[in-house]
Write a structure and sequence with these properties.
It contains 28 helices and no strands. By secondary structure, it is mostly helical. α9 packs antiparallel against α10. The longest helix is centred in the N-terminal third of the chain and has 14 residues, at 36-49. The protein starts with a helix and ends with a helix. 41% of the residues are buried.
Amino acid sequence: MSLLKFESMLKTNNIYFFDLVEFEEIIIHYLDVGKVSLAKKAIKLGLEQHPASVDLKLLLVELYITGNEVDKASNLLVKIEKIAPTNDEVFIQKATINSKKGLHKEAILQLKKALTITDDKVDVWSLMGMEYLYLDDFENARLNFANCIDVDFEDYSALYNIIYCFDMEQQHEDAVKYLNSYIDKNPYCEVAWHQLGRQYFILKMYKEALTAFDYAVLIDESFIGGYLEKAKTLEELGNYKEAIDNYLITLELDDPTAFAYTRVGECYEKLEQLEPAIAYYKKAVHEDPLLDKAWVRLTNLYYQLENYEKAGHYISKALKIDEDNALYWKYYAEINLKLNFFEEAINGFYNCLKLDEKSLEIYVGLVDVLTFLGEFNEALKIVFEARKLYENFAEIEYRLAGLFFVLNKEKYAKNHLINGLKIDYSYHNILNELFPVVLNNKKIQKLIVNFKKAME
């Protein structure tokens, strides 16, 4: 009624009288819904009718802070403190201003003053906990949030913050002890059971985690987070069919998510049931076309099925989403090799190198394609680049030998061939695959035979 009366007054320009409580309710409502201009009007009129009201002045301070008028807020607080030196809200607002300035230690000092005079210690402890979090002082933050829990066991925000502090300090065993103690006093709290399961999961105590998640979903059968974590735990235990069932429950409880579809696909993949795996990955990308992980999963499955055209189609989708992913370019190169699209394969390998993916496999793959296409000088350049990283590797030495023979630099070729034979004699057969003309050379055959005899 007060709100309707106030808004009616604004429309008619009539001035009505409101008592102090009515003004506070009107102002707080407008602040809560973000109607700042109406809150300002209400405060202005309120102070005209109740000029001595400390509470209205404090609401004005809050308004100033919301509008980043920090200096105005600070100056008004100085005046209010002289009138009401024992008003806890004065120190709370001072703390808020300090916090906005990044002065978190000063904010804590103000909150400690508020704590000595307030009747609502829980709110102050909560604010102090947040200030300690800003300072990465997780122990003190946790102690303040724990004070909140001691007063109100259903303060789940404080509970989450306590566990967050344990997580940040990697004190997972201590988190388990705290949660078990909490559950002893509040056994039907699904949030606590869920958090306990998370801690056991981190500690790789999967059976204990599963029990905790079971309790969480027994207490609240619509607890989506509980089912998700239970499914993940079942995956770790190798119970993929049951994991699938729990992921599917989350899809029934809420709108489908690409994450859940992908996890179901992964479970089917682990069960070696590729058709349903593909079906769920397709559902995932339909739900979220920008989920490159699902596109890559599809790529890998079609690669396994030797359907390289579809594999190439899906890896291209992933690359459109993340063209700076070297692993995707590696898949792209390997798939195009299978399709005999050699220029595309070369492009894929070069992109890997540009993205600092310089594994021996990448270098060898690129050199072999270049060699096949007869681009011997470019291949030689790449091999030398690889040799800087992979010195004394047979894969490098034999390719250098083959390339130098092809380029009629027999002396260099023989030196690298001997190096290769010393490192791994049996690997010389690679020459037959890549440079068959080299092994047809009688001098080379003799060199290899003599080296073998010397080894014996």
